[in-house]
Amino acid sequence: QQQVKQSPQSLTVQEGEISNLNCSYENSLFDYFPWYRQYPGKGPAFLIAIRSVVNEMEDGRLTVFLNKSAKQLSLHLTTSQPGDSATLLCTSGSFPMSQFFASGGKVL
């Protein structure tokens, strides 16, 4: 059973548009939700994280929204740029211990 599910699997956006990726998780005890970006041939690099004590976290062009009751979160990337083309990975777990990775969503 997959602990974390992400959608859409692929997202094509034009430069300047907003990218929106969604993630759902099953374990209500999860309290830490980092996102990573992975370029082809590279390892995942940390982007942004949110803890369960807040429902929104913003950092530059990135905003994460968390809906604890629905066990869902979403990542919004504003003003998309060519360098944003990558696989974005949603993860969830218990801070600071284990993290469960989703299969990833590609922003093209």
Automatic annotation (TrEMBL):
<keyword id="KW-1279">T cell receptor</keyword>
<dbReference type="GO" id="GO:0002250">
    <property type="term" value="P:adaptive immune response"/>
</dbReference>
<dbReference type="InterPro" id="IPR036179">
    <property type="entry name" value="Ig-like_dom_sf"/>
</dbReference>
<dbReference type="InterPro" id="IPR013106">
    <property type="entry name" value="Ig_V-set"/>
</dbReference>
<dbReference type="GO" id="GO:0042101">
    <property type="term" value="C:T cell receptor complex"/>
</dbReference>
<dbReference type="Pfam" id="PF07686">
    <property type="entry name" value="V-set"/>
</dbReference>
<feature type="domain" description="Immunoglobulin V-set">
    <location>
        <begin position="18"/>
        <end position="92"/>
    </location>
</feature>
<keyword id="KW-0675">Receptor</keyword>
<dbReference type="InterPro" id="IPR051006">
    <property type="entry name" value="TCR_variable_domain"/>
</dbReference>
<keyword id="KW-1064">Adaptive immunity</keyword>
<keyword id="KW-0732">Signal</keyword>
<dbReference type="InterPro" id="IPR013783">
    <property type="entry name" value="Ig-like_fold"/>
</dbReference>
<keyword id="KW-0393">Immunoglobulin domain</keyword>
<keyword id="KW-0391">Immunity</keyword>
<protein>
    <recommendedName>
        <fullName>Immunoglobulin V-set domain-containing protein</fullName>
    </recommendedName>
</protein>
